[in-house]
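Support request, please re-run this one:
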Amino acid sequence: QVKLMESGGGLVQVGGSLTLSCTASVQPINIYKMGWFRQTPGKQRELVASIKSGLSTSYNEGVTGRFTISRDNAQKLLFLRMDSLKPEDSDRYFCNSLPIFFPWGQGTQVTVSS
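Re-run finished. Output below.
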């Protein structure tokens, strides 16, 4: 069974930066359109950014200009570079395909302190 693995989260001050990484066991993710999602407990999971296999990208309005999604198809890795972080970016971040094909991973927690 495919297992998605996110990493790179942590505690950062307002205005700081983090880079999240995502990879998948068993199944290569390089052929899929992929996205980064975030979720606060009790709320619906929100799509933050997406990238097609051909590398075109799209972003949630709230992160445009601050977040950059990228992928390394050769290494089967997905990244989310987050700059100018705000307290409202504090969430648990997940990766998955679009449409959703894989079971959700554990995610990685991002906490932005003011």
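The CA atoms of residues 68 and 81 lie 5 Å apart. The first strand starts at residue 4 and ends at 7.
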